[in-house]
Structure formats: C-alpha cells, structure tokens
Amino acid sequence: MRKIPNYNLYGESARPPWYDAFNFEWIVERSAPNDWHIDAHRHDALLQFLYIRGGGGEVLIENVMIEIVPPCVIMLPAQTVHGFNFAPDVDGLVVTVAQRSIEALASIAAPGLIPILQRAGVSRVSAQSVKESAFVPILELLEKEFRATDRGHMAAGMSLLIALFVQVARMCESASAPSVASTERRAQQIKRFRQLVAAHFREHRPVEFYADKLGMTVTQLGRICREEISSSPLAMINEHLVREAQRDLVYSTMSVKQIAHGLGFSDIAYFSRYFRKQTGVTPTQFQAEAHKALAIQ
C-alpha cells in the first residue's frame, strides 16, 4: 500500500508542529517549479487555507477530485490528504498555520470558527462579497506581517488570521452546510475526544475505550472523525502520542529509554519501531536532526 507523504510544506520533510507559526506564499511560488502539479500528501499538524481569485484547476481532497472555480476558498485541516492540478494561469495564495495554535486562539476569541477550521472543503464566494468585506485588506496585512522582521510580527500575524477566518465565515454563510446545531455538537464531540486522548494516551487504550467514554459506538466515532476532521480515531491517538514523544525528544534531558517508559512503552525496541512507523525515522535520528536544526536557528 502506497504511503501518503507527510510534509511540513509540500516537498519539505515533516517537522515538529511547533517549529512554524504561519506561512504565506503565492501559489505560483511552489507550483510553477512542479509543473503546476502537487502530488497527494498531508500535513501532520498544519492547516492550509487557499484563496483562488483567478485561473483554475482541480483539488484532490481525500478521494474526491473537485474542480476549482474562482473566486473560491479551500480549507485543508491537518491530516487531510490533498493534491492539486493547477492551470498555469492560476492566481491565488496559500496560508499555512499550525492547527492547534489557531484553534487555541479561536477557542478564546471566536469559538464559532472551530468547526470551520476543522472541515475540509471548497467554498465558492461571490466577487461582490470579497470586494465589500475586509477580506482582501486583511490578506495584504497578513502578507506584510509574514515578510516583516519587526517585533511581534508573528503575534500580529496570528491575530490577523483570526480576523481573516471571521471574514471567510461571513462570506461562506450562504453556502450549503450542516445546521449550526449539528456542526457545533460534532465539534464538541471532537473536542471531548481530544481531551480524553490527552488524558489517557499513555495508557494505550483502544478506540473502543474512547467511544464508550463518549457514549457512542466505534463506528459513530469513526464517522464523526472522518466527516469533521478527515481523520480516523486511531490516527488522532497516534498523532497525539507521537507529538508528545517528539516534544520529549527535543526538549527534555531524558534518554530515549526514559521517554519510552514515560509514554507507556515497556519495550524500548517496540517504541523505536512504533515511532519509525509513524514518522519514518527512529527516535534517535529524529532527536539528532531536531537538535541540529535548533542549533542552527
């Protein structure tokens, strides 16, 4: 079975999700050198937002190919398998941000954005709504902050992202979507599932344990995860466990054996095999590469 590549940004090996706050680039920058084709891939912990204002193409989201008809916005939450076939005249941009970081800000400033940030899809927007809203001015400020080196530019950029997604939500309000009550209920279920994973991941509990805690079947939990965040319950559990392992490997002074035991692995060899299966490298290799990268920064 072909493994879907996991990238930080397309063509760049995945790194711990706390390395990058956000990224802003025009589609032509990365797509033109790749002959306007981006192979199917995913991002471990990064959300990508695209605004297409001209040209066209196709976007693959999971197993569905969707035509890009501008003006439109495309939302690709973390773990969403996606790829592109752009027309050479495509005119648009892509903003990449750490999913957890933007959700943490949204949970405080605009909780209603959470379902939007967690749902993959393409939404048409009217040229009139784009023109009348603050959407474009915010994008211009966002690009300016990204390319700046002034003090606090990352904090300013993250704040602008919240404002940007508020504008997106307003422009997409007329698009067909599940009822607000249904969407918010599922968002709360996903939030509760993540809280349970954070509390029990060291115990290596099966998916059945979490479904029972949530008062639903494994099938129901799987369907909610697929529809809301384009992932599976097991993938979410593994993602959390690997992320904690990565943090310990980079920032703690513990040995690999101590880290393995702290994460509930009694056999260090099994921990190494598990980590390599999830990331493509051994814990020792990951630690050495991360420390080298941090030393350069």
Automatic annotation (TrEMBL):
Record GO terms (molecular function): DNA-binding transcription factor activity; sequence-specific DNA binding
Family matches, as InterPro entries: Cupin_HpaA-like_N, Homeodomain-like_sf, HTH_AraC, RmlC_Cupin_sf, Tscrpt_reg_AraC-type_HTH
Superkingdom per UniProt: Bacteria
Database matches in Pfam families: HTH_18 (PF12833)
Keyword list, A-Z: DNA-binding, Transcription, Transcription regulation
PROSITE patterns for this protein: HTH_ARAC_FAMILY_2 (PS01124)
Annotated ranges, domain HTH araC/xylS-type: 191-289
SMART domains, per database record: HTH_ARAC
Manganese as UniProt keyword: no
Protein name: Transcriptional regulator
